[in-house]
Amino acid sequence: MSEIIDLSQEIYTGMPVHKTQPQVKISVHATHEEWEGLTDANTVSPSVNRLEMGEHSGTHVDALNHMRRENRGQSIDTMPLSMFYTEGICLDFRHKGLRELIQAEEIQAAIEQAQQEIRPGDTVLICTDHYRRAYGTENWTKGPGISGDAARWMGEQQIAAFGVETVAPGVSGVSNKAVHRICGEMGFTHYENLVNLHLLLGRERFRFIGLPLKIRGGTGSPVRAVAVLDEL
Fold it and tell me: According to DSSP H, which parts of 39-101 are helical?
């Protein structure tokens, strides 16, 4: 039987989001008591909730049109589903500290240390353990991130995507804008706000699934990202 590892954050009112994103709000839109005309019930049970959130809240994937102006028109609903259903590997960068860059040669060394390889169409997950260390703290937005050169090197390996536990793929004010532009230029994407990547370290290749919502013109989408072991 396959093992499924959940790589997705919980979505809830007031959850930490990137400073550029709207706050997440979940409220009751309708209740069973309202539907059934009950006026003397002691409890209220929601039948429909209203969700207010940005496309880039929680665990999500970026569309190519989010990366740079030149990619307008390449919205999330136009991207092939094969980009979100791939084989994957997970690399260990738990030694990286706050706002430290991960360079291309370090990714190559991590691949060798893990006795893995990057194949065309892969999703490469970067484990920094930043979620468990800093989620909900003042350091949450200060995580490590990949450099522009590292993004370009991964793009040259023809990956479908890479994924991080942090709120951004690069370090804010240092490499993050460059990483986005390189992804758009080279036609691959990335996932942000992943969790449980430490559970994939030392494991074999896995099936990565991070299907987005089919949002017309969307610049990204929340996903329920999972890794499936023993499926390949």
Answer: 64-67
Burial class for 183, CB neighbours closer than 10 Å (0-12, 13-18, 19+): buried
Q: What is the torsion angle, in degrees rounded to the nearest 10, for the CA atoms of residue 45, residue 47, residue 5 and residue 101? A: -100
Residue type at 132 in one-letter notation = R
Q: What is the pLDDT of residues 137-189, one digit of tens each?
A: 999 999 999 999 999 999 999 999 999 999 999 999 999 999 999 999 999 99
- The answer for residues whose C-beta is within 8 angstroms of residue 33's C-beta and 6 or more apart is 39, 41, 44, 45
- Measured distance CA(184)–CA(27) in Å, rounded: 35
First CA to last CA distance, the chain: 12
Between CA 15 and CA 45 the distance in angstroms is 23
Superfamily for domain range 60-229: Putative cyclase (3.50.30.50)
Say if residue 47 is exposed, middle or buried (CB neighbours under 10 Å; 0-12, 13-18, 19+): middle
Share of the chain residues as helix, strand and coil, in percent rounded to the nearest 5? 25, 25, 50
Q: Which of 171, 221, 229, 174 is nearest to 203 (CA)?
A: 229
CA 101 to chain centre: 18
